[in-house]
């Protein structure tokens, strides 16, 4: 059987060596020297990220649970789906369940994995696994120390209007909104129940 990636061989960059420029609590900045496909050398700077999850909490009445949270790099409050980074040795599903409960107080009786996205491929290793959470039950949220956010509900059908007008510009939430529209229209299906 032929290698389906054989056409990519002329595109691969090979790491020669590298250094860590900064190691923080959750991001590591690296600089690598690489050999290009034509034999020349180049430098690549990038962030190592542990990975994350995002949850689309969907109520039986077609409402979705959203959050408002101040995002310091942009210096503004953003509207987004619940999300959070993976802890060491944590499965994406467990992380999604934990983040939904901690940030919103809700738990879900039904979980489906939708997809994995890579939001900033030019300078980060970050991936985000997106889950659909249904059969929601309210409970007590358990925000991390120093975490401040508000939750609200809105019709899933209105979310695309917010994307179109720029009221929602967070890339993971935009992708989640498009996936949700396709799922509700019956055009796309999430994976079988995850838990």
UniProtKB/TrEMBL annotation:
Database matches in PANTHER family: NUDIX HYDROLASE DOMAIN-CONTAINING PROTEIN (PTHR11839:SF18), UDP/ADP-SUGAR PYROPHOSPHATASE (PTHR11839)
Keyword Hydrolase: yes
MF-aspect GO terms: hydrolase activity
Cofactor needs: Mg(2+)
Presence of keyword Hydrolase: yes
Family listed: Belongs to the Nudix hydrolase family. NudK subfamily.
Name the record gives this protein: GDP-mannose pyrophosphatase
UniProt organism field: Pandoraea thiooxydans
Gene Ontology terms: biological process: nucleoside phosphate metabolic process; ribose phosphate metabolic process
Classification lineage: Bacteria, Pseudomonadati, Pseudomonadota, Betaproteobacteria, Burkholderiales
Record keywords, A-Z: Hydrolase
InterPro entries in UniProt: NUDIX_hydrolase-like_dom_sf (IPR015797), NUDIX_hydrolase_CS (IPR020084), NUDIX_hydrolase_dom (IPR000086)
Domain Nudix hydrolase positions: 49-181
Catalysis performed (reactions): GDP-alpha-D-mannose + H2O = alpha-D-mannose 1-phosphate + GMP + 2 H(+)
Any GO CC annotation of this UniProt entry: cytosol
